[in-house]
Amino acid sequence: MSLKEKINEDLKTAMKTKDEKALRGIRAIKAAIILAETAEGRTSKELSHEEEITMLQKLIKQRKESAEIYLKNGKEDLAKIEQEEIEVIEKYLPQPLTAEELETIIRETIQRENATSIKDMGKVMKGLTPKIMGRADNKQVSDMVKKLLT
Q: What pTM did the predictor assign?
């Protein structure tokens, strides 16, 4: 089942159960899917798995930034809404990697790429991307790669 199909099913369920939190988050995802599919220059109608994950991560990042701004300005109620939407959107991302799993994958990639110094970081990151997409924070990954390469 594609993300689009799952979203449509979950939207129906949320409407039936009158789950306002889920409705807000799911509608945001559905709107983002429609925008991405109808974007100018697209060659295919359907989003790839990688595009779906990237889109979901972008939605989460936007909401985290908004929540941060709301908190700085004393608008806890609005920050709470953003946090609720983050929780809904995160349900559609792959299961996150633990620190141990991430380190194991990074070590394997370093060995496979024959990386020996920080200069090889680009090669390592390129090799890691398909394995960890949507399952780990990019900043955390790059920090761990730097640590393991130095």
A: 0.75
